[in-house]
Amino acid sequence: xxxPSKTLFEQFLAPIFSHLIDRDALVRLRDSIDWETGxxxxxxxxxxxxxxxxxxxxxxxxxxxLSTDAALTYDPITQYVLPPGETWVRESLVKAIQGVPRRIxxxxxxxxxxxxxxxxxxxxxxxxxxxxxPQMLVMADHKARAxxxxxxxxxxxxxxxxxPAAAFDVVCATLxxxxxxxxxxxxxxxxxxxxxxxxxxxxxLDGNQRxxxxxxxxxxxxxxxxxxxxxxxxxxxxxxxAGFEAVRTEDVFWLNQLSMARKPLPLVERxxxxxxxxxxxxxxxxxxxxx
Length: 291
Ligand SMILES: C[S@@+](CC[C@H](N)C(=O)[O-])C[C@H]1O[C@@H](n2cnc3c(N)ncnc32)[C@H](O)[C@@H]1O
Fold this sequence. Notes:
Blueprint: H1 8-20, H2 23-31, H3 35-42, H4 51-55, H5 68-78, H6 86-95, E1 103-107, H7 113-121, E2 126-131, H8 134-146, E3 152-155, E4 168-174, H9 182-195, E5 196-207, H10 209-214, H11 216-222, H12 227-232, H13 235-242, E6 245-252, E7 256-262, H14 267-276
Parallel strand pairs: 1-2, 1-4, 2-3, 4-5
Antiparallel strand pairs: 5-7, 6-7
Helix pairs in contact: 3-8, 5-8, 6-7, 9-13
This protein binds S-adenosylmethionine.
């Protein structure tokens, strides 16, 4: 019987990463965490896993994110795949936040690296990370406690979080959309729109769609099941479709991009803001006449 051939990830990247990863340290970390209790505590039995999530192997890890292995190896691998440096790339999102938010939500927070950075940058804010994987949340919680950073983590689906509407000044997602089918990304953006306060800011940091389209080999070696669909899409267009304004995307070095947008203010507040700034109110600006 023919044995299934190894994936490109298994053939090339896994051996490289296995040299870069300190296996003894990972075993010590694994043994220092009570996974069974942690997973039971985080698991919300009401959460229904979407099909794309249960049936896909992300990063070549079997069972995707619903495994201890994924939660343990995620950080050691991720540090090598965000050129020119993981912290620099993540900081591009944190630094783009305007004003001083009171509540921040990090969708698909994984092991909570960006979630922690958000809390450090805005110590007065309530910061919450939400993820579908209880194992990733156990790891995130372990890291946050060890670093004495006060953030909360919640098991949930970013497509329908069950959180109250207009509860957050900032909603963000880091490295989430290249792992979801575009239809899921659009549903998550609609949910983010609902969760934001009027005038609130949305930030999406992910793979650079233009670069990925131009370098198909990257999509091949990383074997993310939806990365090609993601790269053919356009986050700006998805944001516009969800109702956001002031939409723009910037390159973050070569491999990543940061998309930013705002939830519009109701017209009455926009008119007041225009008056305060001595500009014509939006509803007073004449519509262009047909030529
Ligand atoms: C590549 S990881 C990114 C983790 C983290 N944001 C980071 O920047 O390192 C993608 C994460 O999204 C989570 N995820 C995927 N689909 C999700 C969904 N519909 N709702 C919530 N989390 C989801 C996965 O469990 C995983 O932890």
